[in-house]
Amino acid sequence: MPQVVARAWVPVEPQVAFMVSQMTGEPRLRWDPFIRKQYLIDADKPGKGVKTYTRARVGLRMVSEYSSFRFPVSVGMTMVEGPWFFSVFGGGWRFTPETRDGIPGTATVWKYTFTIRPAWLRPIADRIGKVVLGREIEARIQAFARACEDPRVLDTL
């Protein structure tokens, strides 16, 4: 199963980094370049078992479910419904305290795995998927890192 990984360090404590990563609505749209629309389904706050609707800026739609939610350490999700070409899609985000140059902060690691369908297309589509998804996730984690330093985002916590 192909995997895409992106990493960033942010100069905020893990609790803050985690909360920024789990924003929804207008505050999330302010920083997340991947999504066009996102909301929790039948829930007021994220948590294990909660479903989320996401429409990407490129038009793809997905319903995912939190498979884990361990504030402020990690969060995981799996696709419940999504684009026809994914038979499996999931991701996990980890937040680890890390001081750099005397500045307390958080090392963030975002990992995504996927399985393409139909199976005969995987030898080519897996490589394409890793490149395309890799670019998206790298841009997304860099936008997240900027958001963790943006007073307009932090003030909404």
UniProtKB/TrEMBL annotation:
Any Pfam family matching the protein: Polyketide_cyc2
Record's protein name: SRPBCC family protein
